[in-house]
Write a structure and sequence with these properties.
The model has no long low-confidence stretch (mean pLDDT 94). The relative contact order is 0.14. With 395 residues, the protein is of the alpha/beta class. The strands form 2 sheets. It has a 7-stranded parallel β-sheet with strand order 3-2-1-4-5-6-7, sandwiched between helices. A 6-stranded parallel β-sheet has the order 10-9-8-11-12-13, sandwiched between helices. The protein is elongated. The protein has helices at residues 13-26, 70-84, 97-108, 128-138, 152-159, 174-177, 202-214, 230-239, 256-261, 277-284, 298-301, 316-327, 331-345, 350-365, 374-382, and strands at 2-7, 31-38, 56-60, 88-91, 112-116, 143-146, 165-167, 189-193, 220-224, 245-249, 265-268, 289-292, 308-311. Helix 1 crosses helix 14 (350-365) and helix 7 (202-214) packs across helix 12. The chain is built from 15 helices and 13 strands. The chain is 40% helix and 16% strand.
């Protein structure tokens, strides 16, 4: 079997996933090809395009989406897929070039199509007509690849159960973040990792941390990440007279596990997250988590009180309360939370991702071709997708 996965870009977490899947599927006598559309313009631009694998190509390594015409993008995608001629196309949401054009090519060539997505329909407000069109196109997929079963209800309702689901692609290399030494939980430090943009809600975290310091609690808040809000947040920390907050800026990915190991808990106060893969990282490093209930990963990876606590990110007092609940636990219970994090995250591993994908591929190849109706064909022909990620950084 020949499989092609296509996405606007494959940065950060995707790199390890693709390398794993390439080898895993080779062991299943399947060939795996990756098509990355743009070499520039990613929200994760700090992670540059540097791939040299022959099975993994970038169509426009020197360009971002805004520098190209839709016609040029379409021609290059179709040409790449024609050359590979996969039996199955895997692509991101049909909102984007990769999903829209990948699906169109698959239907034109009578191939199977899998769409992956970690955003819930309720997270993006669209008018009725736009949502109806999106749903109609999405229903043409043969399978949806979602992070977890927690997404089922929203997608089943939106798609009227027209597309089956499978799970587990939102994983990280757990072994990379695993620490070999036992954690003593005596560093008195909580770590936050993320881009410094409005949606990460770091300003409210700082205001909540002020309440921690006013209570005379001698713990440190370490913030890793850079972004447009960097200077503003440093100035806010100064104005709040915070003594135990450190902004560490960008940290080399190879050094991140050491920072997790040097911490006693992880916090993510985001106002919204389609998933939040830093939560996976922290849990793989054995950290209890303090997490916003607007982070989708919260509803799959957090067991309230067992491996951490959730909070309403719009309520500074709620953030403070969650931090205090954790700080006031005894070390024995913190160690139990650590063990629980490791247990839970073990269910979202590369190996399980590969197994679930191969199970879905077996099912998909045993079923007939899913031919779109007339209206769906017309809309598929008209919709090329887009690449607008500006809304990712704000609510």
């Amino acid at each position: 079997m020949k499989i092609a996965i296509i996405n606007n870009d494959f940065r950060v977490y995707w790199k390890d996933r693709l390398n794993y899947l390439h080898q895993f599927l080779a062991n299943q006598n399947s060939s795996f090809h990756a098509i990355e559309i743009f070499g520039k313009g990613s929200p994760y631009s700090f992670d540059s395009y540097d791939n040299e694998e022959k099975w993994w190509i970038c169509l426009f390594p020197q360009n971002s989406a805004g520098e190209l015409s839709k016609e040029d993008i379409k021609k290059r995608i179709f040409s790449a897929l024609d050359e590979i001629n996969p039996d199955v196309v895997i692509a991101s949401s049909i909102v984007f070039f990769s999903g829209a054009l990948g699906l169109r090519w698959a239907k034109k060539n009578k191939k199977k199509f899998i769409m992956f997505d970690d955003a819930k329909p309720s997270q993006f407000k669209r008018n009725f007509l736009v949502q109806w069109v999106k749903n109609l196109i999405t229903k043409q997929a043969d399978f949806l690849w979602l992070p977890s079963g927690e997404y089922d209800n929203e997608y089943a309702e939106t798609l009227n159960k027209k597309v089956p689901f499978f799970y587990g692609y939102n994983c990280v290399n757990n072994d990379f973040f695993k620490v070999s030494s036992k954690r003593d939980f005596n560093n008195n430090k909580i770590i936050c990792v993320g881009r410094l943009v409005p949606i990460k809600n770091i300003d409210k975290l700082l205001r909540s941390w002020q309440q921690i310091e006013l209570k005379g609690i001698d713990w440190t808040l370490s913030i890793i990440g850079k972004g447009p809000d960097h200077e503003t947040l440093i100035n806010l920390s100064t104005s709040l007279k915070l003594k135990n907050v450190e902004f560490l800026g960008t940290v080399n990915n190879n050094d991140i596990p050491a920072y997790y190991y040097d911490s006693d808990a992880f916090i993510l106060p985001s106002l919204s997250e389609t998933w939040g893969l830093v939560v996976n990282e922290a849990m793989a490093a054995g950290l209890p988590i303090l997490i916003s209930n607007k982070v989708n990963a919260c509803h799959t990876l957090l067991q309230e009180g067992a491996n951490g606590f959730s909070f309403d990110p719009f309520d500074e007092n709620a953030i403070t309360e969650a931090i205090l609940k954790y700080i006031n636990l005894d070390i024995v219970f913190k160690k139990k939370m650590s063990a629980k994090s490791l247990e839970i995250i073990g269910e979202m591993s590369y190996e399980k991702m590969g197994i679930r994908l191969t199970d879905a591929l077996t099912q998909i190849m045993s079923s007939g071709f899913k031919s779109p109706g007339l209206l769906a064909r017309v809309i598929l022909h008209l919709w090329n997708g887009r690449y607008n990620t500006s809304a990712w950084d704000k609510l």
